[in-house]
Every structure is written in C-alpha cells, then in structure tokens.
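Reposting from the mailing list since nobody answered there.

I have sequence plus structure tokens for a pair of proteins and want to know whether others read the tokens the same way I do. The first protein:
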Amino acid sequence: MSATRVLVLNSGSSSVKYQLLDMRDSSRLAVGLVERIGEASSRLSHTPVARGGGSREWTGPIADHDAALKSVAQELAKDGLGLDSPELLAVGHRVVHGGKRFTAPTVVDERVLAEIERLIPVAPLHNPANLTGIRTARALRPDLPQVAVFDTAFHTTMPESAARYAIDVETADAHRIRRYGFHGTSHAYVSRATAELLGRAPEDVNVIVLHLGNGASASAVRGGRCVDTSMGLTPLEGLVMGTRSGDMDPAVIFHLMRVGGMSTDEIDTLLNKRSGLIGLCGDNDMREIRRRVDEGDEQAALAFDIYIHRLRKYIGAYYAVLGRVDAVAFTAGVGENSAPVREAAVAGLEGLGLAVDDGLNAVRGGGPRLISPAGARVAVAVVPTDEELEIATQTYALVGKGR
C-alpha cells in the first residue's frame, strides 16, 4: 500500500489547526482545531469528513502543544486515521517566516530548525509556535518526513527593486531588513486557481491577488511569479487590516516616543493590535462595520472609506507594476464574503477595465467565480483560498515522488 496521506499542521501561539488529506484526489479525510492551548478551557473540535460523521468537541485543559498534538492523534485514531497509519506519507507545516534562504518547501532537519529559530526576531509571534509544532510532530513520528512550507517563499521571486528598502545597504544586510511578504501559500494558490478559472496557463496570466481577512495583503503576480507584495519585513506593512495600521510614515514612531512618551513595546502593541479598523472605529469585523455604515454611523463609514482608499491605491500601483492585468482576484474572509468591499474597491476604475456586475457580485458562497460583466477587459474574480491544500500539495510534490 503506497502512502498518499498528508497531515497539515498550522501551529499558532495558542492554537493548532489541522487537516488530513489524501493526495490521490486531494480529498479531506479529517479537519479540526485545538484552541486556547494552555488554558483550563481549551477546546478541540474534530470532524471526520471521510467517515461522514458529525463533529466532535472536547473542552478541558490542554497544557501545551505537545498535549494538543497528542489529543489530535487520539481523535484521528478513533476514525482509523491515526498517525501510526502506513498510509501517512508526511506532515506539512505552515511556517510564517523563511527569510531569503527558504524559497521552496523544505524537508526539516536540525539545520532547517536552527535557521527557522534564527529568524524568530523578525517573526516573534509566529515562528516560535511553528517550531513547537514541528518538534512535537517529529517526536510523535520521528520516521516521517516533516516538511516546512513557508509563507514568505512565494514572494522570494520579487526583484531587488521591489524587495529592497531605500536605507543604508550595509545596515539593511546586517540586520536582514528587506521586504519578505506573507500569506504566500494563499497568493500562490489563488493566482494559479484564477488562471484555471480563466482557462489559461498560469504562465500566461497577470493577476492582482487581494487576500483580505483580519490580516490583509496584496500581490502582483506576473506569469505565476510574484513581482511585488504589500507586506514587508513583517506583516505590519501595506493594507489597512483588522488591527494593524498598514502603511504609515515611520516618523510617527519617533513622534510617539519623543512627544507621547511611549515605549517601543507600547508602540508595537498600538500598531499591531490597536490600529487598523479596530483603531479607527472600534470594530474589526467587516460585517459589523457595514451594519454600522448602513445605519449612518459616521465613524464606521470613515473607517470603511480609509480601508477602501488604501486598497484601491494598491490595485492601481500593481496595475502599473504589471503593465497588463488579466484579473483581479478577491480571497480570504472579507474578500470572499463582502460584496460591498469588492464593489467599492473597483468603483471608479472603469478606465482600467475594472468593474463588477451587481448581480454576480451579490452571490454568496460557491467556488471560484467571475463577478465582472461579460466581455470585461479585466476579469474580477472571487477565488476561495485553500492554504491547507496548497501546503499538502507542495509537501506531496516534494516527498511523494518514488514512494
């Protein structure tokens, strides 16, 4: 029996998302989430998709990621999908920051672990949790390949003119300061799926991908390769997000230190957790913001307008970067579900060939679909992202050959 299953783990600071997929047909066998790790009220939800059973939930203390993954293994075993199965080929891990070195999925060894750890200063919230997930999975199944799939990898094709900041080169190189970009697995998947939706090869299509969730990023993809993206050294740069400011004059930081008397940690918290939509209007849920806008709330309306203004600036900028745009693709929670955001983002850009059909734009749910009018010069699409499938696909492509 050949091994064709891949377990995908996305380890956060206090959570683990997981999916077990059979790569013969990319079907999901099980999905689940462990959250509030380290608390007395930890929660595990598990759905055995392949068995057609309902979801199971368990609430109680889960001390750490080691205990969390052992609980996941137990739930999978109940459905005959345990980690000891000979059909399990590998474990694919989402790793947020891979720096310049990791440009593709990589089988984890001690040197890879050491490099991921060395990158913690530029991803202090994410890489430690990713490392914990990898180490725990290795301990549970030391014989299985553990594959790291990096959020930054898709963006390593950016030219130096897009990746470099205009600061002293020696200082930048000494501290690895450059634009890395994030959400790479989503941008890779969506750009390819958009080309498929158009019935064309990815190598022939230029796409602007708008990954709009609580975290948000844009990318310019030329012929399947990223040539620019909105996030930078960290996920703070770029679009207005749920709690992050996005682009801002760096001198604001100095001003807050000198005039506001704020510490670096306080400013870090301000810009990452108390800015963006929640800083502008007190809400970071786009559904709630739109409800308030519809009720005439001026603060919510201003927050929405600032969000859209930044988004349209990036659409225009990436149109200029690409020269020719075949499609603009909306994805992630807001991009897939908020018709008002999609409509407002392209409003007034008819001269660039961008428009949405009101009826098509109003449709909710479903797979990849066009929402632009028939015959539009530039396709506008809604393409649900599937980062777990992308991680599994890259993992299987790396270690599945010859097995």
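The second protein, same order (residues first, tokens after):
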Amino acid sequence: MTSFDLSRRGLILGAAGGAALLAAGRPHPLQAAAHATAPLPTFYDRMVGNLRVTTLLDGYFKLDQNLVTNLGDEQIAEGMKAAYLDPANPIPLAISTHVIRQGDQVSLIDAGAGGAFGPSAGRLLTSLESLGVAPEDVTRIVLTHMHPDHIGGLIGDNGPVFPNASLHVSETDHAFWTDETIASGAPESSQGFFALARAVSEAYTQRTEMFGDNTDLGGGLTTLAMPGHTPGHSGVRVSDGSDQLIIWGDSTALASLQFSHPDAGIAFDADGVQAAETRRRVLDMVVADKIAVAGTHLPFPGIGHVEEKDGAYAWVPEEWQHI
C-alpha cells in the first residue's frame, strides 16, 4: 500500500475528537507527573484457561461525530440515543490495554496513549503498579496497530518505557508507518502519526520482532489479520485449551453505532471499505463460534459477546466475573 487517506469528510481535526488524535500523533514524552491527580486505576480481571487477562483503563477521549463515516446524522443520533448517550455531545471512547500473565511471562497488548492525550489518558504505568507489575517486569508487548493511542505509552523522557520487553508488530503496519515516502505524501494533519511511529520504532529497534498474518507468538497468543483501520491492523487470539478470547483492537470501536451499522467507519481508517469488510468478517466469526471478544474502545471493560440482530449485530457485555 503506497497511499495514505485520512482526509475523508475533511478529517475535521479542529473538532474535539480529531484534535485529541492529532495531539496524540505528536511524539510527546510520557509525563507521569501530569496524571498525578487522575482517578484511581481501573482494571478488570478474567481468566482464559490458566491465563490471567487484565484489562486496564488507560483513559478516554471524545470523538467528534463528524469523524464518523458512512452514516447519516440521523442514524448517528438514533444510535447514540439507543445507547443513552446525548447526541448533542461527542462520542466518549475508552482507551484500554490488556495484560496477560502466566508464570514469569507478562505480555502487554498495546500501550495506551502515554502523555499525548493530556490528563484524560496515560494511566498505564499507574495501573500496572497497582497490579504489582513494574515496567521492567513486562516481557513482551504486542501491538494491534501503530496509532498514537496504542503506542504513545511506549516511550518517555529517557526513551523506551519498557526496558526488557520485546516489541511485536505487524510487518505490514510497521513498514507503512515508518515509510518516509508514504509519510511525505500524507497530509500535514497526519504527520504526527508517522513521527510517533518512527520514534517508537527507533526506541525499540533492537528488540522489535515482526509478525505476519495469523502468527503463533507462543504462550497462548496468536495474531489475526484484521486490515483496514490501518494496513496491518491485527487482532490477538488469547487461548488456553478450549477457552479463548479475541482482542480485536479497533476492528469495532463505536459500540453505539458499528454493531447496528457495521459499514460505519471512522475518518482515521486508512481504507474504509476494507475496514468494513474486515469488521463484518470478524463479527460473523465471533457470532458463529460464540467467541468472547475485547475491544480497545468499547465501554470499559469492553469484554463481551456479539449476537445477530435485525440483519446486523448487537453487543452483549460480559457480566462481571469475580476471580
């Protein structure tokens, strides 16, 4: 893929959600002190076989409705009202990360926004500390993709935040976001996305491992190709025995809209048509196989199941599990 299109519907970066993501694209260092007054860490534990999966709330941001694509204003308003959200306001989206622990292995799926989103996000280190996990304890980091709200927490004032972790990233996504030719042809509003991806790549260059489509990473983790939102966007299947959970990153991000309208996208989709095709394929798979799923931007803790409903889909949040 040699083109870059984040300009649909004008990519209204002056709006609340767009401004947040534009800020996130700049390679800001992590500033833990800025989050000293943030709410207490929020996390949710559940088991997948013998694997402990902990969802951490890194924070949140507000997405302006003008950044929703392939959906009319009335449909957006109806979807928000059905979810008991005020259609006069931006759409609130969580930013979640996932920690998977078994023995001495501590894997992190995505790393949150770091200091890029201001005080509404960047709680990852505080949340890890509440679990008794120090940055040096993390042995492996797997990225669903290289957007700022997934990689911002990887770098800080002194370089890489996680000194002992290997970084696993899609070969396709890494090649795209670090390609100088593609970056030079991207709109000015998107340059920060590329700059942050390059900074992360340089910080972890000696410890980066590329994966392809559907790669077994070991330890119960397998990548799943889910392209469209970014060229190499990937899910992660967490499995132990017959038990499994699919962490699908941003494949479906807008709970109030994209289950009932799966063709609806976000202006930050690199390929909106492919993203919608991927979303339908993944939703059909988890419905048919009754697989539990977790999403980065679904209402926290963002774990549940999907059912068919009225020719589309419906989100069924998992009841809180006590372990």
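Reply #1 (J.P.):
I read it the same way you do. The first strand starts at residue 43 and ends at 48.
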